Amino acid sequence: MKCPVCNNENSKLIFSNFKGHYHGLFDIYQCSKCGVKFAINKNKQTDQLYNKVYSENDFGYYNEYKIQAKEIKNQKEPIKYLAKKSIPYFGVYNLLKKQNNQRTLDIGCGLGYLTYAMRNSGHQATGLDISEPAVKWAKENLGDYYDNESFQIHANNHEKEYDFISALEIIEHLENPLDLLSSIKKALKPDGEALISTPNSLYYPQKAVWNTEWPPIHLWWFNDQSIQELAKKTSLKCQKLNLGKLGYCFFCPNNLLLDYYYSRNFSFNNFSAIKTEDKKTSHSLFNKTVKYLLIDFYPLRMISNFIYLLFNGQTQISIYKLTNN
Ligand SMILES: [Zn+2]
Q1: Sign for the pseudo-dihedral over CA of 194, 37, 3, 173
Q2: For residues 36 and 222, is the Cβ–Cβ distance under 8 A?
Q3: Predicted local distance difference test score (pLDDT) of residue 25
Q4: Ligand 1 mean position to 174 CA, how many Å?
Q5: What is the pLDDT of residue 277?
Q6: I need a labelling partner for 217 at 20 to 30 A (CA). Which of 36, 61, 170, 257 fits?
Q7: Measured between alpha carbons, how far is 4 from 121 in angstroms, rounded to an integer?
Q8: Element housing 103 (H / E)
Q9: Buried (b) or exposed (e) across 153-174, using 16+ Cβ within 10 A?
Q10: Which strands form 220-221's sheet, in the order they lie side by side?
Q11: CA of 45 to the centre of ligand 1 (A)
Q12: What average pLDDT does this structure show over 144-153?
């Protein structure tokens, strides 16, 4: 199988006939050159998938997105509220905090809370999503600055218009990830900046097959080299953001040392990663005490995170800054 990222002819089949969330069976390949892992879908994925996901009452981490969408309007500083929730929002907060009145685009805005937070910080933000129910919800609840349109069409109609573009945890969902970078390149002003984020396969041991959301939701599991390959193909400069240096240990809501321990605590030759959350929410007294001391008690959490980022820079999600030069 040819690697769609770096065109290397030798991608190895590492798992056969995996039954994902929907749409039948998937073969998982890994490129021997750039290291990307990808799921080949035997039935074609359609846009309808995300209408389904956002309409369902219980769909993994999308439940957390629904909570954020409902809470965002009650926040004094919505962008800081998001920055404290997860790494990619922290990246956006960090890049935009010194800027004023930027023209910004949030690709794959889902329920629209990041777009809302950018607006609230004084930027002219637009949110895009292919899910019709998600955009409808965002428009009804957060304001009229969302479009139910593909980023390819939007980029064609808004060339060199944006100071800042975010596409957080989008690229791993796409059949053609290169499309995303080409569209970003097209829509970005010459001196604009974009931020993309994606689950990081380097966080896990090599033998991990697919410790990220199941296909057809995620079709790719990237590492630094494969993202750099895509950036090179679109003539974008790509820089991985070092979260330790950015002061992420002060903001992070999780204990990164504890997360690392949990992430090593399951079998790597299957698809068990989705279930790791279950372990953290066990309700024994011991687990509650550990949770209080290591996660809720700020000084210990901060020290743990500082130590973790000092010795291991890898986080479960990687963030990359893209610029024209
Ligand atoms: Zn490759």
Answers
A1: negative
A2: yes
A3: 85
A4: 16
A5: 41
A6: 257
A7: 38
A8: strand 103-107
A9: ebbeeeeebbbbbbbbbbbbbb
A10: 11-19, 25-31, 37-41, 220-221
A11: 22
A12: 97
Which CATH topology does 46-247+315-323 take?
Answer: Rossmann fold (3.40.50)
Look at residue 288 in the predicted model and tell me its pLDDT: 82
Phi, psi at residue 234, to the nearest 5°?
-105, 10
CB 69 within 8 Å of CB 137: yes
Please list the alpha-helical segments (H only) found in 103-175: 113-120, 132-142, 151-157
Cβ-Cβ contacts under 8 Å for 17 (sequence gap 6 or more): 25, 26, 27
Model pTM score? 0.90
- 30 Cα to the center of ligand 1, angstroms: 8
Centre of ligand 1 from the C-alpha of residue 227, in Å? 10
The amino acid at 106: D
CB 315 within 8 A of CB 203: yes
Collapsing DSSP states into helix, strand and coil, what is residue 66?
helix
Distance 229 CA to ligand 1 centre (A): 8
CA of 122 to the centre of ligand 1 (A): 40
Domain coordinates in residue numbering, the chain? 46-247+315-323, 251-311
